[in-house]
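Quick illustration, no need to memorize.
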Amino acid sequence: MTEPITISQYTVDEPITWEGIGLHSGLTTKVTVAPAELGFGIKFKRVDGDLEHVIMPDVKNICSTDRSTDIARGAAGVRTIEHIMAALWGASISNAEIQVDGVEIPILDGSAKPFFEKLMAHRKEQEVAHDKNWVIDEVINFTDPVSGASYTIIPHEELSIDVILSYDSGDVGGQHAHYTEGDSFSEICDARTFVLTSELEELCKKDLIKGGSLDNAVLIASEGDAVGQLSNALDLLKKDNKDEIIERFKKGYTLKYSNELARHKALDLIGDLSILGHRLKAKVIAKKPGHTGNAALLAHLKPMLQKVIKLKNKPVYDPTIPPVYDTMKIQSFLPHRYPFLLIDRIIKITDTMVVGVKNVTFNEAMFQGHFPGNPIFPGVLQMEALAQTGGLLALKDVDDPSEWDTYFLKMDNVKFKKKVIPGDTLILKMELMSPLRRGIVQMQGTAYVEDSIVSEGELTAQIIKRNP
């Protein structure tokens, strides 16, 4: 479920800028994280040249996952967003505009540490608001058929990441990394990106890693002629200092952690998961994850999240709890009677919202003709049931409510999403959209059956006292 939790949100106190080379483009680029108001979210904005396009970090905007996560909208795009996204997540910054002067986020030292440290130094608390958390309540298993990456997501109170890797290099072999939200993010954000020598030639032919160097990536020797593999790649990249790079590679490297590669994969996974726009509360076990597998996982999760968001305000109906109004009480408010009284219970009523229940049975009169052999509860009667439910809210505080009638004035943005049939229980929720004025009431109506919204619309009505 999605739980709106009242917490402080964060932005930055002033624009913060980093400048450096792009890992794949090889071009010098600059990125600025600018303050944003509460509720703004995270948005990228290309500001170079004649471009000034806003690009949302969203699953639908992912355009490439070849060794990085790239997003685009139309002709404008931003490459390699995963490290800065992970740093924003680690710093709990919910509102910021990321202004990009160039095609790519600079790689810096190959980790998220330079981003994270500056963000924490300039983090600014905003007023208390509802943050968005997605609490997973069931086990989800997913395997990406393209990359072979597999993921198991288990209910957990915080985001917990377990990454399991296996490589053909005797230097690194298998690695495992674990991170749980609440641990020190600095112990994962400084893990650097890496590449195997056996991968270099293919990456060069794809026109990638133009900005890669031993200063911003860990180069791991693969089985076979690692020096030869590096030499071929340097020829393709047309590096003037080829001999210097090879000699430096021969001297070896020192990992910051024995499992630095797995830690970096966990960092990338956090950055990619943050694209969902909700802070995931679950344990994620990832085997051989990469950006392609991560993006496929996001595409798998996104419909689930959208359903959760749609149903996050769905009322809970427990038939064992006595109703606020039973049928007899409802009839003291409304003039409707059989066969047109379309509410059985009111289970909740406040100053701004009312929730009713309608049990749909085969005995409904309309099923004789709508439709014989295929009984469907008409959509227009779903709207009528919502209107009757809303009428109880409108009449709640008037004297002698039985002397008043409620008349429809209009219905806007009405949508029928799923058919309702005998045996269904309609949960009818009506919420005030504006205060009651001159007897005019405007409400947002939503009808649910189980875990689906079956119809919704904006309903406007007028309450009028009946003539003697």
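The chain has ten helices and 23 strands.
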